[in-house]
Amino acid sequence: MSTADFLGKAHTLLQLRPKTPFRENAWARFLELGLPDKAWEPFRYVPLQKIYDFAPAPIEATPHFLSEFRLVFVEGNFQPSLSSLPQGLVILPLHEALKTYGPVLQTRLNKTLKEETDPFALLNLALHDDALFCYLPPKLQIEKPLHIVYLGKGAYAPSHLTLFCSSGSSLSTLATTSSFGFHHTSMDVALEEGAHFSHTEASMHSGIHLSDFKATLKKQSSLKHFSATAHDGISRSRLHIALLGEEADALLQGLSNSRSAHTHVYVRHVAPHARSLQKYKNILKGSAQSSFAGNIYVEKEAQKTEAYQLNHNLLIGESAIAYAQPNLEIFADDVKASHGATTAQLDEEHLFYLTSRGLSRETAHNLLIQGFIQEMLDAISHRPLRELVASHVF
Amino acid sequence: MLFIDKLTAEIEGKTILKDFSLNILPGEVHAVMGPNGAGKSTLAKVLAGHPSYTTSSGAIWFQGQNIVEMDPEERAKLGLFLSFQYPPEIPGVTNADFLYAAYAACKGPLKGPLSKEGFEPLLERTMQRMRVKPEFKMRNLNEGFSGGEKKKNELLQMALLEPKLTILDEIDSGLDIDAMKDVANGVKALLTEDRSVLIITHYQRLLTYLEPDYIHVMVDGCIVKTGTANLAQELEEQGYHVYS
Questions:
Q1: Which of A246, A264, A309, B214 is 20 to 30 Å from the Cα of B53, by its Cα?
Q2: Contacts of residue B101 in chain A, CB cutoff 8 Å?
Q3: Which architecture characterizes domain B2-87+161-243 according to CATH?
Q4: Within 13 Å of residue A341, how many CA atoms lie on the same side as its CB?
């Protein structure tokens, strides 16, 4: 499919949606930027043509529910009847939320439209059916995780979730997709002072997964984000994080064993004394390809920033390729920042050590791969999800 | 037990072992000493089956079989154990998992299948016997271990796998006197009349605590002199250059 065809289909879908100024602005902005091609730096290694060639595959996958609390989306649309909410969490369609939380929300949405540089993020904002707004009141700390389940029937399914975590609140979410279609998810999270949010997403089914995640962190708030993919399709995870308050903390991690896994992270340190860590590991079998673009931007006033980035790639396949692009722009002078990337095959000396103890080469292989991913699996605190990921990624 | 018959081995086109021969009987302790570059570590690796080395001629008879074509795992199952000079650190793999896998691979065929739960008490008893701290189990394989702890881990494996032939590749390197005495005692405790040890070392001090039956001087890829334990003292006084 040419990009013109893809645009045509997108436009057709747009016509089916309720007309709102926001949606029209998002579409206009999207057209301004246009669909990316390989010359665009953030998309250099992403198999764009395969994305544009997407054809629906009407195969459903069986969902696994991992928590008593869940938000269920079918084909990108929120299904209240299938969902189950924790006490105190407020859920509204976005257009209704604009009436209640108007000014703050409108400002945020306008800012997004104005500053967004990722065309797929804008496409999602234009095409999603009914965005969901979640509000966590001040000091509400929800112990059990909220499972966001994206069900689909194999078609293009855009969905958007805006989450507002008031001061002192805390929530953790798990997200899984269950179809072989084109899941286009978008989350926009605002963390107020002292709010804590943890999000773990796992895509274990083939297809196309575009995930856009934005977060703003105010003073002493913390964010943990974990992305796991293990499938034969294409995943692109894009994170845009702004540390706006002092002592904010962002821990961004990921693990992949997919045919085509791409991660684009942008962390902006605006306030001083904030901390961020990006840690991503990829396993590449056969002729898999992965790319990791990690950006750290430290503003002049962001003194005493600590910003770290690690990307480790394990090549198991003969024709596997991993790309790693660190990018650090640091304008403050009292900063601790570092980046490191390794791309290697299994260590022959390690293999020799293990086989010299009687282990078959295959067992030794598997033990080393397990060793490579173990610390990332350990970072998934939700046990059933960790086991689900472990069963697929290994 | 072990008969190395005129073995020539090379790596990346460079011949290191040249017509090397050595005979070790069950229950014997042999030491191979020599200057840097003699090929001592190569000998250890070639015996264990390191894939980077090729044997161009000769044979290695172990337990009645010529093991020259065998993979490292097959040699281990026959009862050959190499204690590494620099045991590698393998992150993400616990000591317990590794020891279980090694035990299952080497002892499984003889003693029948053993579950991980069944292995636990054996591991704990052996750790106690070898004076290895309990927290060792859950630490990652050799990760963050001191030199002495790594060597102790090698001995622990030796105690669990009960090999017929143990090759100690410079087990004394990087150890202080006390740690070395511990290692020597650890090895002595595992010796039985059907097991043999081949000690590869630079310095004679380990041999004071672990007395060999025979000492061989290796220079430039083969053995140039064989003697009994007193040869160590001679070498200490004269050095190796007498033999080059």
A1: B214
A2: 354, 357, 359, 363, 367
A3: 3-Layer(aba) Sandwich (3.40)
A4: 15
